Give the backbone structure.
Amino acid sequence: MTATKLRQLIESEDTEFLMEAHSPLSARIAEESGFKALWASGLSISASLGVSDRNEASWTEVLGIVEAMADRVSVPILMDGDSGFGNFNNVRRVVRHMSKAGVAGICLEDKLFPKANSFVDGPQELASVEEFRGKIMAAKDSQLDPDFVVVARTEALICGAGRDEALCRANRYDEAGADAILIHSKQAHAGEIMEFARRWERRRPLIIVPTTYSQTPTDVFKTAGIACVIWANHSVRASVSAMRRITSIIHERAYAGDLDHDICTVDDIFRLTNEYEVRDAERRYLAPGTVG
Amino acid sequence: MTATKLRQLIESEDTEFLMEAHSPLSARIAEESGFKALWASGLSISASLGVSDRNEASWTEVLGIVEAMADRVSVPILMDGDSGFGNFNNVRRVVRHMSKAGVAGICLEDKLFPKANSFVDGPQELASVEEFRGKIMAAKDSQLDPDFVVVARTEALICGAGRDEALCRANRYDEAGADAILIHSKQAHAGEIMEFARRWERRRPLIIVPTTYSQTPTDVFKTAGIACVIWANHSVRASVSAMRRITSIIHERAYAGDLDHDICTVDDIFRLTNEYEVRDAERRYLAPGTVG
Amino acid sequence: MTATKLRQLIESEDTEFLMEAHSPLSARIAEESGFKALWASGLSISASLGVSDRNEASWTEVLGIVEAMADRVSVPILMDGDSGFGNFNNVRRVVRHMSKAGVAGICLEDKLFPKANSFVDGPQELASVEEFRGKIMAAKDSQLDPDFVVVARTEALICGAGRDEALCRANRYDEAGADAILIHSKQAHAGEIMEFARRWERRRPLIIVPTTYSQTPTDVFKTAGIACVIWANHSVRASVSAMRRITSIIHERAYAGDLDHDICTVDDIFRLTNEYEVRDAERRYLAPGTVG
Amino acid sequence: MTATKLRQLIESEDTEFLMEAHSPLSARIAEESGFKALWASGLSISASLGVSDRNEASWTEVLGIVEAMADRVSVPILMDGDSGFGNFNNVRRVVRHMSKAGVAGICLEDKLFPKANSFVDGPQELASVEEFRGKIMAAKDSQLDPDFVVVARTEALICGAGRDEALCRANRYDEAGADAILIHSKQAHAGEIMEFARRWERRRPLIIVPTTYSQTPTDVFKTAGIACVIWANHSVRASVSAMRRITSIIHERAYAGDLDHDICTVDDIFRLTNEYEVRDAERRYLAPGTVG
């Protein structure tokens, strides 16, 4: 059901937008802001757990969070599956589990396990094409919902392997059954991404992550026929800035009044967490005099 | 060790301040802002999990998060233990577990299980004094670290039982072995809290949570001899406002550029999650040519 | 799907049998022995976790195990939900979660939280009828699968409240929407159970747990029109005896040879855990030369 | 504390014996049978979870079980750490976590991630010596307890690399800081193990796992100066046989009486799970009339 929604978004003519979320709370907020789909980001989930984006969090820790997100929103979630948390067999287990939990799709990248974040300096190694194709096939064979989306992400540009290698890999992953290709770049402008898109000729939906080239006007992406744009980490980055600012102010002043402009109300928290629904339910399910 | 630090803070002559945290990330930020101790808030941990503050999250879910927080900061953490997650036996299990995990203390409140948030409208029921004293004794008998802090929180004022009942309960909890008393109020001003403090006469450290009476100048608390002030939910509330603002802007503009003033850098996320420490460690532990 | 199977079993004319399981491994074994449905026992799951049957294990710990069991067998699982892990709201959360995870049904008992095991000496307190009816209604309203089975278990006989109270409660739970009634007894013979069944007149399927009255011939249950018999703890009890015997022998002899009659082969473990399926999958998904 | 006990056992003059456990319950039983230390086996923990011994279980799943075992016994536990659940960085995280949880030591093997069980047919690949040395160093640098034991297990014989490679690797791991060497073999007799031991000359304590060569008299191991013998999977294998036997009998007979010889009593389960301790504690902590 959510898988069908995600598939329709990705395969639609328009350029669509996915907003990062890293917790049920942030997922709920992104949904309320109007986003039609969410990106369960490995970087920001790791960050909220306080660990580096190097598969320090175990796959069951990550799945627990993404499952809880899926429980709390009705828009579809595309999960950042890193390099698959191991080999093809770990991919199978993860996809079965996520698919059962109502997650709409997974994105797998052609790096080794444990991975490092794409924006980290230093050499990064690509997985062999054959091994990664096996993971895509294993993912497709393991999904429970026929509309579950498997995105193949190539890190060829990130790893400095060049555009031809990127195109070649995208082709091979497409043949292996990927439902969409994510082409990642860490350039400060969209040059190599646009060149890739031009050559790709919309063979299969193309997804991009404009973190480093965020200044590129969105019309450029639309004209290039990009299927989906992922705003991959902006919610967690906004939360860090805000938490730092407020905790600094409160620490400095030793006073937490007069912050209403910067912090939501407690009542807002209640609303976001279904407090009022539970209170109504008390009337239905709790006999008079048994309120705890 | 962290327990000793928390005990010293609570027993010091000065009024000290604890900042709420709900994740390892927010804990780290609060520590960097200068706070000497943290409050692992039940409300905000529940909120980040997307569930109401009514013990919808299981105690092991909450403990997992608080343990991860304790792993990531060196300042002590006082855990919001709600009403103890069940009876005295659940309290024993939780205290042993938390004490082993390096959490510095726990706060238990004299309500039933499952509890409701103190600021929720509607009648709330107090636990019997005897049953709650049993929980305090069970907590004290179960701590592994002799300096582990058990705070007894009375909800007598919240539940409308009056100041005399609050004082009576505080006394009984003190006798049962509580290391400090948390007196909670939902008035818009500090009146009943100040009156309580005056009568209490510093028999045992007094802790307050000025959420609804946040406009009260902190000097008032100092003069009243309050041992600790907990800023109980401001970090999560700041994050909600910021995430809502940024996701709305990005959704509206379909563009994520020009937000540098409002969101931290990706590099900042790396620093907060020890990415650079791991990269240095790679040089020590990974042989040349084996970087993944 | 599995819920439909369980419903059919319970509503069939024949007396059916559920075997206890406490882990995916024991679930698999019980399925291979021919049982058409399993009982995920609170006592034996707690025991395998090394904790008392008093809700020491959190509900998410228990659910994690039952979910993993459901992943590994195709026969339906009825989960022992104790007294619902809290109030109606916790029941809602558990039922939604289990129903999503493919568990076929839940059994709720009319005791307080935390519960104590029914066979433990000492007074036990029944929940109020109204509060427990609220839990049943909440459970029925929260199931995702229309065939999900909610069993209402009355502990009236266990708590010494008598047969009339047991019948009255069973009636009220039936009216509240329970799909079956579990009537529990700790007598050494089936007397009170048979009397209850006679009076109940098959208004709704009746489930029994002949742990203390295990000597009663099964024909007696069949004649009485019992819908389901739960063998509630025999698998874990067999495992305890066997593990104790083998570890004692090995310790005494300081030698682990010549035990083939008493322990299964390692190959048997491989078969039970799908090792050979994974090896076959390696041929499909792993390119030559990449076997890890 | 438990680490100190394990270190003393391993470094003692005598040949010592570790019994496998895969759950808190089996750990308790092995301790009661007299074993002075336990082996938290990856194969049997995976088996109890119903998954293959190929790192299908996440490291946090495994750690959760081993932590719970450590909570329930006072004898030290050596944890089977497979190939470290990833690279050196995952090893660091696991060791810090286990060391904090009171686990006495970890055994790391020089295979890739995800690993396959040593007794599975088919080619298995060894890790590079340098990469594995990095893991040992990372483990030693991460332990919180100075007596925490890091065992380096070489699979050189398992992978067909020969005795010289095995000795060379053992030497290099010793130099990297390993506290003991585990030399594994899948031969039906102890030949290659004895030859290895002879050449090793007790440079560092030697640990063996006589699963396939279980018929070898223990005196042979003693004479060879083996420090520790691990009975690596016998408890779970005994439980499988017993559960299969009992569930088959009960299914066939549709009757669970007359099995007292084969299954422990319910009371025995109570005793093993501290039921009576809790009941006593009720008297201390629960006021009269509040028993739940």
Remarks:
- The mean pLDDT of chain B is 96.
- The longest strand of chain B covers residues 16-21.
- The CA atoms of residues 28 and 73 of chain B lie 6 Å apart.
